[in-house]
Design goal:
The protein is mainly alpha-helical and about 325 residues long. It contains twelve helices and no strands. The chain has helices spanning about 15, 20-85, 90-100, 115-120, 130-150, 160-180, 180-190, 195-215, 220-245, 250-270, 280-290, 295-330.
Length: about 325
């Protein structure tokens, strides 16, 4: 659960509760983790990975990274739409950097590091509850989108049906609970039974539920779901290109389905950073089932993770570095 202060809490700048030194330290940690993972990937079989990249060529590699970038841009547009639903208009470049900067902490458990985004948005009048509500709805619609895409391989792998149905049912339950106007009122009344610290958390959850309800009407739900399907299908197609570069005979629906169900499997291990480990095992196993050797399956998986997860982390580090540079130069943060 995210710790969310009440709607009326005073605004502070990111630096007051999260110093520039701490932010820079996190940027360095994210960069080190990326270097370690890339090093481990190269150590697996550098020559085979180099051969796969050579076969893809610059156009192929650029297309895979372009598809990942398309995923991030679509999700940013959805995020921007959500923040506007709360009545906020932010400087476009800074808002984009705030969003992409959250990817630097994708490797934090349950991606909780992305809540750092809220510390930047506070200076533009976006409350913590509104920011975390947008993140919550984002994650919810991503789960629905990925579950739909994962169903593409149910015919071949019926064993994943309980996982997919379970995710969908949990998501529907969260949507229904968040849409009930009585839920935040009940939580606020319930909070009076506890100490101040626990009550603060419960009231924060009530604010989160109240803010989320504004994003769960039919129009934003449909827009968000369509954006999610397009965004994650793009990365799934990038995975297909990687498979073809390794001469793996998989169809587009199968490749996208494998990519999606691997994400779900990684997400099931909620506190594993970005599903690292779980996703790799499932993706490699499914490729082996499609006729790939274990060695080729592992290489395809590592290339996919480099082009999606770690590419996002690097973009996030770059975005946060750009924000720090802009702040040092004294560029105005808010619209005048």
């Amino acid at each position: 659960m995210f710790r969310v202060p009440p709607q009326g809490s005073p605004q502070t700048s990111p630096g007051s509760s999260f110093t520039a030194n701490k932010r820079r330290a996190l940027i360095v940690v994210a960069l080190i983790l990326t270097i370690v993972y890339v090093g481990a990937a190269l150590a697996t079989d550098a020559s085979q990975m180099a051969q796969a990249l050579t076969q893809m060529g610059w156009p192929g590699c650029s297309l895979v990274l372009g598809l990942s970038s398309f995923n991030y841009l679509l999700r940013y547009r959805r995020w921007h739409f959500y923040i506007e639903r709360f009545g906020h208009r932010l400087p476009p470049i800074r808002h984009f950097l705030y969003y992409i900067g959250g990817f630097a902490f994708t490797v934090s458990p349950a991606k909780s590091g992305e809540v750092l985004r809220s510390m930047y948005l506070r200076i533009h009048g976006v409350s913590y509850s509104q920011c975390v509500a947008a993140i919550f709805v984002e994650r919810l619609l991503d789960l629905f989108s990925i579950s739909i895409l994962a169903s593409l391989i149910i015919a071949q792998h019926a064993a994943f049906t309980p996982l997919i149905l379970g995710v969908v049912l949990i998501g529907l339950g969260l949507v229904l609970a968040s849409c009930q106007s009585a839920v935040p009122l009940y939580l606020e009344a319930f909070a009076t039974r506890f100490s101040e610290k626990i009550a603060h958390l419960i009231i924060g959850l009530a604010n989160l539920t109240r803010a989320s309800r504004r994003l769960l009407h039919a129009r934003p739900l449909i827009i968000g779901l369509i954006a999610g399907l397009a965004a994650w299908s793009a990365e799934g197609y990038g995975f297909l290109l990687i498979c073809h570069s390794l001469h793996l005979a998989v169809s587009a629906p199968v490749a996208i389905g494998i990519y999606a169900v691997s994400i779900l499997a990684g997400s099931a291990a909620f506190f594993l950073p970005a599903g690292i480990g779980g996703m790799e095992v499932v993706m490699s196993a499914l490729l082996v089932d499609q006729g790939a050797s274990l060695k080729i399956a592992v290489i395809a998986t590592l290339l996919c993770r480099l082009a999606t997860l770690w590419f996002a982390v690097l973009l996030g580090v770059g975005a946060l570095s750009a924000i720090e540079f802009m702040d040092k130069r004294g560029q105005p943060r808010a619209m005048t």
